[in-house]
Predict the structure.
Amino acid sequence: MSSTGTAGAAAWYRSLSWTQWKALIASNLGWTFDGFEVFALILTIGAALHQLLDPSQYKYIPAYAGAVIAITVFGWGLGGLLGGILADYIGRKRSMALTILAYSLLTGLSALSWSWLSFAIFRFLVGLAIGSEWATGASITAEFWPDNARGKGGAFLQAGYPIGSIIASTVWLLIGTSGPGAWRTMYLIGVLPALITVWILHNIPESARWEQSNRQRRAAYQRRRQGAALRGEDAAIVRFTLIDMFAEPAVRKRLILTFVMSLSVTIGYWGVSTFVPSYVGQVASGLGLAAQRWVGLAGLVQNIGALCGFFCFGFLADAVGRRPTTFFYYLLCLILTPIVYLWVKDIHLLLIGFAVYSFFIQGVFSWTAVWLPELFPTRMRATAAGFIFNMPRLISAIAPLIAGSLIVGFGGYGRTASILAMFYILGLIAVPFLPETKGAPLPEADTLAEPAAASLQQRTA
């Protein structure tokens, strides 16, 4: 049976080889380290800015924090585009190892910051490297896992992010009160993932789908050098992948729809969810409680909720389909935002509320790892996934900046969160126009138009 074969739904795990599990583990670890790094920033940015800014500027910390997060997200978006292209040309395995090594080493530089500006510059560089890793992991997982379990594989990959965030929350609970330099220690710990690159290079095989696509690309290049006129897929495969995505109407339509969906969730997350720790800290301080302790607890329950949300998305997507599962998550993101930010005041209920909230507001990102790779052919899969997952961050980078300014202007978080949550409506509008790909083989050029129909014909043949 091929890696894209199917098995009985009740025993989906029996169709998986150890090689397929290793591909998922490598991808999950890369995303876990990303989750640690990003959530370390969210948890420590307040403490870092208190040390890097003059006391006279403390009242503007939400705005400075929004600026640093925006710069990080901007770097993430740019790096994600470059990383997807890299994975389509040099291979999934080498690209993954390179990007993990890069962001691990760059993270350590953040601990050396001497001003908020130097801190922001280092965060931009880390963002470049972080963004490059995801598209590779999503592509290699989709290309290794079988059709009937690919939704679960994508969700398991995406679950690495809250796992990393939970680790970051736990570490911060342990060291956050150790002194004013505790935030620097968090970034030094972030250097450790560099060690995993050796294991990836020696234990993870290259994707057979990518190798086949790469052979076709090289053969087409050779024919063109010999003066042959290239047509059809040969002409497409020698086009630069970033241009190739916009050349075909079927691909272009999917690109636009998924871009809108990705933009809505990135604005929602970076504009709203990233301020959860700061909001809980403010509530705790107002009640005379230890702010950093409650910030750590909020981060912990937030990411436990997210972890459950990711896992459930994968099983639901394989059971009822990509479209209904994604639509349901978007809808709950829209509904729950004003509830937790405006109506819940008790701090214990607030923690429970944010756990449920994160189930959806972070769990909704699973569609990018589950659905995206199923919508584009192998020759451009990582480029398309990197573009859709990361390029909206170049736009949504302004979301935390605007949110920080609005929080200062409104004197609170509730109205700002409710306004930014309206962007989830864009996702709700776009979802119904994408094809359902549950159980369908990964598309190539000749199966792109109707993947679900192609899958049905294959099963009934």
About this structure: Confidence is low (pLDDT under 50) at residues 1-9, 449-461. Residues 18-52 form the longest helix (35 residues). The chain has one domain: 17-455.
